From TrEMBL:
Native organism taxonomy: Bacteria, Bacillati, Cyanobacteriota, Cyanophyceae, Nostocales
Keyword annotations from UniProtKB, A to Z: Membrane, Transmembrane, Transmembrane helix
Superkingdom field: Bacteria
Protein name as annotated: TspO/MBR family protein
Organism: Nostoc parmelioides FACHB-3921
Pfam families: TspO_MBR
Membrane topology, as annotated: Multi-pass membrane protein
Length: 157
């Protein structure tokens, strides 16, 4: 029998792989953008997001195990999926459209969805909600960084 954590982890990995839709020209555009001087930790960002996604999947697992298979739980799983899709879409959508403004909007949408998800999950499990805190802390930093980059790269805003 397939365990729920395997399904949740598998879906998370499949969605994350969708970020690989960027072309070399998308990557070139993104890499040439000027960054804020204080962004000295850019190399750590993939590790940070990996930890955040693991925490999110673990949170989803806790919620699923509290009340597996109910309509409410399925709807909450839909919110987790929406959050991951919005988060994963950030770089490819911004790069395809060559718009830091769009990136800022996508980042803001992710923050709003994460706040809603955390509030919903808090009623089910404090631990599951706590595991969403890294997203709540990091998402505004990423969104603010993109907003700053729009000011540094007005031709790409």
């Amino acid at each position: 029998m397939i365990k729920s954590w395997m399904v949740i982890g598998g879906v998370a990995i499949l969605v994350a792989l969708a970020a690989n839709v960027m072309t070399p020209s998308d990557r070139k555009w993104f890499n040439r953008l000027q960054r804020p001087r204080w962004l000295t930790f850019e190399a750590a960002i993939p590790v940070i997001w990996t930890v955040i996604f693991i925490c999110g999947a673990w949170s989803a697992y806790i919620v699923w195990e509290k009340n597996p298979g109910t309509n409410t739980t399925w709807m909450i799983m839909g919110l987790y999926l929406l959050l991951e899709i919005v988060t994963i879409a950030y770089t490819p959508v911004m790069s395809k459209l060559r718009s830091l403004r769009v990136g800022t909007i996508v980042g803001g949408i992710g923050l709003v969805v994460s706040v809603i998800l955390t509030l919903v999950v808090l009623n089910i499990s404090g631990w599951a909600a706590l595991l969403l805190v890294p997203y709540l802390l990091w998402s505004p930093i990423g969104t603010y960084t993109t907003w700053q980059m729009a000011h540094l790269n007005p031709q790409d805003a």
